[in-house]
Amino acid sequence: MYILQEVYVTGLDNPELMIEVKRNIIKNANKLQIVADSSEPARIKSWRTNGWRIKGAHKKKDFKTNAIRWIHSKKIHIQYLCVNFAKEIQGYVYEKDKDGNVKEVPVDFRDHLMDSMIYGLERAIRGKAIEFLK
Q1: Which runs of consecutive H residues, i.e. helices, occur in the chain?
Q2: Is the model's pTM score more than 0.85?
């Protein structure tokens, strides 16, 4: 896997974020299929209303744990300009049980780019890497 670009900004509303993504990623970014956090249906609807090809992730039980397990089996190449992604992945922390043993459950803290990677890889993780787009 290759992480080549990132958009990492805070405090923007949806229209401002759409402009930021278009400016920093690809001019026709709204034509790409985006998989977003399904717990934000209003945000997804707003992007769709503005012409973006976006859908919510199919988060089932243990989705994140299984996704992380799948990602661990891959080699990740991070472009040197993706400093926030590199910082986030290096700071990823897992919960520990009462005896100090590391569990497969990540601590939910500063993991926005990691979550977006998981959503973007959702089809591949579920074994459906090929998709024919309309």
Answers
A1: 14-24, 41-49, 63-72, 83-90, 112-120, 122-125
A2: no
d(Cα 129, Cα 127) in Å, to the nearest integer?
6
Phi, psi of 41 (to 5 degrees): -60, -35
Q: Which two tokens stand for residue 56?
A: 């919510």
Residue 51, token pair as written in the block: 């012409």
Q: Give the tens place of pLDDT for each residue, 7-50.
A: 888 899 999 998 888 887 766 777 778 889 998 899 999 999 99
Closest CA to 38 of 30, 29, 47: 47
Pairing of strands 2-3, 77-78: parallel
Identify the architecture of domain 1-134 in CATH.
2-Layer Sandwich (3.30)
d(C-alpha 55, C-alpha 28), whole Å? 17
Rounded distance between C-alpha atoms, residue 92 and residue 21, angstroms: 24
Strands 102-106 and 94-96: what pairing?
A: antiparallel
pLDDT for res 82: 92
